């Protein structure tokens, strides 16, 4: 069996690299993954999976940070021009991208594997020292790039799906493969949870290329201490006036935003765990001789637990509203993203570690490590755990050309086959009929 799995993965290794490079050329940020989803659906149907997408897996009321309708329409048209199925694209109208595939193998547990598929809002570098550019598979979409490895994750998801479909008679239960949109900005998991995607899941597995698994052969089998986070946009609206002749007639939105930005960083820390806050964007004003009637700040909170993050959000909203009142302007607070805290189950990590022992690529297997950052998978994981299930989030080591979210990002593609084999072996240990 072990040799057969390894040989099956080797047969599709070249195909995995083709998938990855295709996804890399056509990156699509959150809620615009029309081409990516279309391509994934095409392959999954070929392998006999039942498919759900659109409103069946995305609760519209829980979607956060969705682009404008005009931008979505533009991205839909671009996806069709780049090879997406026009009928499928139309069914994803409104940004309801992503897909959930299921392989029904009879009685047994429900095992979910989650793979994120969105890209970053980054312009990829175009220099000969960057392999994707040099080898002609760099991004064709302006200001969009797979700079975090989600092209690799989508690829590993497809490879896992193909191998598991070929082994259906050796499996029990339901294998549910979740291709999640909108992980960047932590926007997609909540909409999937609200649609019921993980309601009946017994085990959930997710992972990421890189991060704290920095070298070829590294594997971290469980990630702990995901920070909960909330992403907020605040729009301040005042009143313009001539800065010289009639400043008293104006309402200064810039000063309100500046006061808020400074005082947000003065929120008291929480005694029960770590917390974070950051104002990352500040835009305001119209001209040097005009009282600024407009301002925008983009900020995020984080907490070691969801309770701590909720505390930070409540304090942030209080400060923002107080700053608006002080300068007699109005403010609108928009939630643009958010996810829960979470930690992996170590007994599931043990299964991952045991699976990895049979894979030559993995030479440094670490049971668990704290993350200290946010990941949208945590919301799926914590939901499954609240319902009595278990899960883990692994990190796959691969040499990288640059750090995550860098315009030079690239990774060693050998990790793709290793990731597929790890998933397949782990599923077999949990749901193999011999078990």
Structure characteristics:
435 residues; alpha/beta; four-stranded antiparallel sheet; 13 helices; 12 strands; 21% strand
Commentary on this structure:
The protein is an alpha/beta fold and 435 residues long. Helices cover 35% and strands 21% of the residues. The protein has 13 helices and twelve strands. The strands form two sheets. The protein has an eight-stranded mixed sheet, sandwiched between helices. A four-stranded antiparallel sheet has the order 8-9-7-10. Helix 1 (2-11) packs antiparallel against helix 13. The two termini are 13 Å apart.
Oligomer status: single chain
Average pLDDT, to the nearest integer? 97
Q: State the low-pLDDT regions, or none.
A: none
Most strands sheet: 8 strands, mixed
Proportion of residues in helical segments? 25-40%
The rounded distance between the terminal residues' Cα atoms is 13 Å
Shape: globular
Count of helix runs: 13
**Cα radius of gyration in angstroms:** 23 Å
Order of helices and strands: HHHEHHEEHHEHEEEHEEHEHEHEH
Chain-wise SSE layout:
Blueprint: H1 2-11, H2 13-25, H3 34-46, E1 50-53, H4 69-81, H5 86-91, E2 99-104, E3 110-116, H6 131-134, H7 150-166, E4 174-180, H8 189-194, E5 203-209, E6 218-224, E7 228-237, H9 253-264, E8 275-284, E9 294-303, H10 306-326, E10 330-339, H11 346-356, E11 364-370, H12 377-386, E12 390-396, H13 414-431
Parallel strand pairs: 3-4, 3-5, 5-12, 6-11
Antiparallel strand pairs: 1-2, 2-4, 6-12, 7-9, 7-10, 8-9
Helix pairs in contact: 1-13, 2-7, 7-13, 9-10, 11-13
């Amino acid at each position: 069996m072990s040799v057969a799995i390894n040989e099956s993965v080797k047969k599709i290794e070249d195909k995995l690299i083709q998938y990855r490079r295709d996804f890399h050329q056509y990156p699509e940020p959150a809620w615009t993954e029309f081409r990516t989803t279309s391509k994934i659906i095409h392959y999954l149907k070929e392998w006999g999976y039942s498919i759900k997408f659109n409103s069946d897996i995305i609760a519209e009321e829980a979607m956060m940070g969705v682009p404008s309708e005009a931008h979505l329409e533009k991205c839909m048209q671009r996806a069709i021009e780049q090879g997406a199925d026009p009928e499928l694209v139309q069914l994803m109208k409104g940004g309801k991208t992503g897909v959930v595939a299921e392989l029904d193998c009879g009685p047994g547990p429900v095992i979910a594997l989650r793979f994120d598929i969105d890209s970053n809002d980054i312009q990829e570098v175009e220099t000969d020292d960057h392999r994707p550019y040099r080898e002609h598979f760099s991004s064709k979409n302006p200001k969009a790039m797979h700079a975090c490895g989600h092209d690799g994750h989508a690829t590993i998801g497809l490879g896992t799906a193909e191998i598991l479909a070929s082994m259906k008679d050796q499996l029990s239960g339901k294998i549910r493969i979740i291709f999640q949109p909108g992980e960047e900005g932590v926007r997609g998991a909540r909409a999937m949870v609200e649609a019921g995607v993980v309601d009946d899941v017994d085990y959930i597995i997710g992972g990421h290329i890189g991060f704290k698994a920095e070298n070829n052969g590294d594997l971290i089998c469980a990630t702990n201490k995901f920070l909960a986070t909330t992403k907020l946009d605040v729009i301040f609206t005042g009143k313009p006036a001539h800065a010289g002749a009639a400043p008293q007639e104006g309402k200064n939105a810039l000063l309100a935003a500046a006061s808020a930005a400074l005082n947000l960083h003065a929120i008291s820390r929480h005694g029960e765990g770590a917390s974070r806050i950051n104002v990352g964007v500040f835009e305001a004003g119209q001209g040097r001789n005009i009282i600024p009637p407009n301002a925008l700040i983009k900020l995020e909170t984080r907490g070691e637990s969801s309770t701590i993050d909720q505390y930070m959000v409540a304090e942030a909203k209080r400060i923002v509203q107080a700053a608006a009142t002080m300068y007699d302007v109005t403010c609108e607070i928009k939630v643009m993203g958010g996810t829960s805290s979470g930690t992996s189950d170590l007994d599931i990590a043990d299964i991952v570690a045991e699976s990895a022992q049979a894979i030559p690529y993995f030479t440094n297997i670490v049971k668990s490590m704290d993350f200290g950052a946010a990941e949208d998978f945590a919301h799926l994981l914590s939901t499954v755990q609240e319902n009595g299930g278990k899960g883990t989030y692994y990190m796959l080591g691969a040499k990288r050309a640059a750090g995550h979210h860098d315009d030079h990002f690239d990774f060693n593609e050998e990790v793709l086959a290793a990731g597929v084999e790890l998933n397949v072996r782990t599923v077999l240990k949990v749901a193999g009929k011999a078990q």
